[in-house]
Amino acid sequence: MSAILTDRYGRVHDYLRISVTDRCNLRCVYCMPEEGMEFEPEENMLSFDEIYEVVRVLAGLGVRKLRITGGEPLVRKNLEQLIGRLSSIPGIEDIALTTNGIYFAGRAEKLRAAGLTRINISLDSLRADRFSLITRGGDIKRVLDSIEAAYRVGLDPIKLNVVLMKGVNDDEIDDFLQMTIDRKVQVRFIEYMPIGHDDASWKSKYVPLSTVMDRCVERSWSVNPSGEVYGNGPSKNFRIEGALGSFGLIHPVSDHFCQTCNRLRLTADGNIKPCLYWSDEFNVRTYIGNDQALADLFLKALDVKPESHEMAKALLSEQQSHMPTLRRMSQIGG
Which residues bind GTP (predicted)? Predict the structure, then answer.
């Protein structure tokens, strides 16, 4: 099977994000509501065998990089077994994990031994009380312990995801930038996105990432492109002169990165999402076991992938060309 996963705009897709659950042990304010969230029945979740078969076929089509997401992926039992199986597939070179860090410290060694190569940990505040408010009950100490565990088992780079929110945590930009000076870590500032919102309420929390660069100027920090090329994502990376670490800017709204998108998404209930923002989905379950049919389905999904997600139009309340998804971020996998 020699087809390459290339869409109508010439973008080659070698990266698959796999959501293994829509459940989470936290309720972060930008990700899901405090209550009333309807989760998929467990029998609707793709099994490890099904995920393995999908990845095996995609590896034959040129997929080389995987990211395991949720919800919170570590609420899925025996995740180490899945990572071990996926790492054995010929052609798979990189397996990353996005986690809230609550459970990672106790499982770091097993996950690393299974084949985990990199990690992203969500950390939207460095202040314990505020972190608890944003996550609706999270314990920041457990997350900080997980960061130390990631260092201990040799994961590199360690990335911290910070969703900037106006009036919530945008006064901590300096603190996160200082962290990159003191430690070998990459802090990734992420713009608040209109994912899963059927109204314009998200706009009140939106902060353009130009704010981060403004803070560097105000502090008289000299900033240069970091030159880092690792990773799969859309982050533009920078380093403060003399810093041990770096910081990244992910601005899907103010400066979209669609022209270089190399990502496909597989939801926990078995749907291919060619674009994070739009509602288009293709269910894989009935095709598993037929390699050619499964490959054709992914090619069909790529054929409808739009050139851009148009989140900037949502910010300006302009008419959009496609139907935005109403799934929450936790239901998609980010």
Answer: 17, 67, 98, 159, 263-265
